[in-house]
Amino acid sequence: MNTAPETVVTYLDELDSSCELTGYLCVNDDGYILFNAGKIGEFNFTELDKNKSAIASVPFLEGLLPANSDSTIVIGNVHIDDNNYFDIHLLNNDVGYWVLFFDTALSGIQLQEEQQVRLDVDFINDKRKTGS
Amino acid sequence: MLQKKICMLGSFAVGKTSLVRRYVDSIFSENYVTTIGVKIDKKVLSVNNTDLGLILWDVYGEDNHQSVLPSYLRGMAAYILVIDPSRPATFVSAKKLHTLVLDTLGEKPFVLVLNKSDIKSEWKMDEDIFSELSGAAIATIETSAKTDTGVDEVFQTLGICFTKAA
User: What is the ipTM for the molecules in this complex?
Assistant: First the structure.
């Protein structure tokens, strides 16, 4: 993504994270795609039909657009396939509403394994407390 | 096609993921696999000959170490609030999540789900919280993802709610 729009390049420069950008979308007020590149799982953003709304092409964005918030919204460890974790960053500027996707697969898998151990124990303790 | 974002909310290990897997894939596993972040699925539901796309956000469960962040609720049209009545602490989590929704988005329609009806002999109801949440919900449904009891009814109830409002 060497030819990413200026908004994306600037955001990445200011981002305090080493996660890899794997795709982005920019939509207008009507939800139609202005800029797009990259992919997540089965969704190849580069090939999206600009005559369709972003939500029609990428249904899991339902409710997230337009991303009209004063500050960036981050939704962490989203997955649509097993172990294919990514973060969604929503921001907006004069150009449009931006949706950036960052690969978090490795950290997501590690976090899942750690949480599994912790909650297995918590669940057992919960059940013991109730005597069931 | 009308499309709506639905969040599955509740404490950890109440069966949110099992309910989605049962509804979307018609499968059930006894193994508990914890969810981090959110798993998103889509299912098209037909209500009165109208197709409705449900975008299901299976959000990680509340536990002693983490709370659900408001960003996960963004754009949610309705939610399914899941309790495991065999663990009374899950009533408290459900009430906390209901309050989070009210504080973040205002009132949204929700179905209150009492899951794991296959072990009903182990249920220990928190009647105060149950009464409060049940009174605010559009429906209260007992389910078992294991025996496939009441699962379709939960999503059908939301579908009817949306098509009436459309």
Answer: 0.92
Q: What is the pTM of this model?
A: 0.94
Q: How many domains does chain A have?
A: 1
On whether residue A13 sits in a domain, the answer given is yes
CB-hemisphere CA count at 13 Å for B70? 9
Q: Is B30 on the interface with A (CB under 8 A)?
A: no
* Domain region containing B42: 2-165
Say whether pLDDT at B155 is over 90: yes
Q: Name residue A91's beta-bridge partners.
A: A98
Task: Find the CATH number of the domain harbouring A10.
Answer: 3.30.450
CB-nearest partner of B63 from A60, A78, A119 = A119
Q: Residue A16: how many CB atoms within 10 A of its CB? A: 4
For B119-149, letters b (16+ CB in 10 Å) and e give eeeebeebeebbeebeeebebbbbbbbbeeb
Residue A99: inside a domain, yes or no? yes
